[in-house]
Amino acid sequence: xxxxxxxxxxxxxxxxxxxxxxxxxxxxxxxxxxxxxxxxxxxxxxxxxxxxxxxxxxxxxxxxxxxxxxxxxxxxxxxxxxxxxxxxxxxxxxxxxxxxxxxxxxxxxxxxxxxxxxxxxxxxxxxxxxxxxxxxxxxxxxxxxxxxxxxxxxxxxxxxxxxxxxxxxxxxxxxxxxxxxxxxxxxxxxxxxxxxxxxxxxxxxxxxxxxxxxxxxxxxxxxxxxxxxxxxxxxxxxxxxxxxxxxxxxxxxxxxxxxxxxxxxxxxxxxxxxxxxxxxx
Length: 281
Hints:
The chain has about 280 residues and is an alpha+beta fold. It contains ten helices and ten strands. It folds into two domains: about 160 residues, Jelly Rolls, CATH 2.60.120; about 100 residues, Arc Repressor Mutant, subunit A (Orthogonal Bundle), CATH 1.10.10.60. About 45% of the residues lie in helices and about 25% in strands. Strands 1, 2, 3, 4, 5, 6, 7, 8, 9 and 10 form a ten-stranded antiparallel sheet that branches.
């Protein structure tokens, strides 16, 4: 597939999506100074570290992944990302819709969304298959080759490394009722100028108690959570089947003050600018 490059010094990022693979998105990037803010994905985010070391926080623990290792981040799990060495890291990422993974899991004998307990895998055969699939999409190989490699990759991942099924949505149903009310408020009004007091009042808590409990439940501060929700909606608008909206219109629609604010937060979460994300292969 034709991709879109964004380079800044030693940092490079190429992003594309493959409509023939059910909208799976791909990222080939090298990062040195870039730091991913705490964020979540609706999709499974699965990557192969090609060079260097990536450090990240996931499920309450600091992790590292080195060259040759595979990283799995499940939908709805808050995580970060930054260099683990001075040289940074280079990786190939897949963003695979949950429903696609569920279909692959069913073919492998697993009902529902597959759960991966391990976030870092050392599996040379799997890493080889991941790179071959990613490169095939990057180069625009035949549809049959891309589809065949993709199907084989996902079923192999499930057969070798899945452990049970994943329960969505997050946060878990046993989260405090007040936090769930605040999350519902964000879902309904994320484009509005919400304050900590607004959300704390919705939760029936003091500002300080709410901020602490919200972060413990979601893995993100209330501010980061609202920003995440805005960026997620911006991604949906930029993927629009009738063509992406103008960036200034997207920024206004999702609640950012202007296009510059959209761009800054969007890149901190996705690794690419909204302009690059909006370009079609």
